[in-house]
């Protein structure tokens, strides 16, 4: 089937993130323990979506109301947004990104952005590096009920782009991107700047070290 769209992750794929994730997670965990989550149940080695899933399950098991849980999740989202927005000025652009995005657009491909960061952060980052003009659609964390690796994040993006999973290619840098692609039927390429990362090495997927290699891959499959 003909390729019609290329979807990108943001942090770690297009830009070097400056988000202090340990700080973010520590603030989230402290808050969740303050509102009833069992102390010690959560740790900052977990991903944010794992922290919230475990927290919700724990609060439900203790009989907390849905309203209490929803308020807690809203506050967690506010913490994440605040930390992300504080960091965007310190982000840096990954080499060859603008040229690669322009080349893809010049080929007539649609471009989508799928990120677990909040929309305001994503928009500010794209404007900072003059990348916004390349993207047809952006779907951020706060645009969906269940962000990636949940496949609904990708499915919503594909619907707006008006392409099927078979007509799109997804590029990301994290195992959660790999999982989202697998669950939504997207072809996937892993971008990594960490050649010696053992976890990355174990991921069974096509890997690239330079983002412009996407152009070669697409040409080779054309």
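^ structure tokens above, recovered residues below v
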């Amino acid at each position: 089937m003909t390729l019609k769209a290329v979807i990108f992750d943001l942090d770690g794929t297009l830009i070097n993130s400056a988000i202090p994730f340990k700080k973010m997670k520590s603030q989230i965990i402290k808050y969740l323990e303050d509102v009833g989550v069992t102390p010690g149940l959560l740790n900052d080695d977990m991903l944010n979506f794992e922290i919230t899933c475990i927290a919700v399950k724990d609060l439900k098991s203790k009989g907390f109301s849905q309203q209490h849980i929803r308020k807690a999740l809203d506050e967690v989202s506010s913490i994440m947004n605040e930390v992300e927005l504080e960091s965007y000025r310190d982000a840096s652009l990954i080499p060859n990104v603008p040229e690669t995005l322009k080349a893809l657009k010049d080929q007539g491909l649609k471009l989508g952005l799928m990120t677990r960061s909040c929309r305001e952060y994503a928009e500010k980052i794209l404007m900072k590096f003059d990348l916004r003009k390349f993207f047809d659609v952006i779907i951020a964390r706060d645009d969906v009920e269940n962000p990636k690796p949940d496949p609904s994040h990708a499915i919503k993006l594909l619907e707006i782009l008006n392409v099927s999973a078979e007509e799109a290619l997804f590029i990301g840098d994290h195992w959660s991107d790999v999982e989202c692609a697998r669950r939504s039927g997207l072809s996937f390429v892993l971008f990594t700047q960490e050649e010696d990362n053992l976890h990355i090495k174990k991921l069974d997927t096509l890997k690239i070290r330079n983002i412009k290699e996407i152009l070669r891959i697409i040409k080779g499959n054309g």
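The mean pLDDT is 94.
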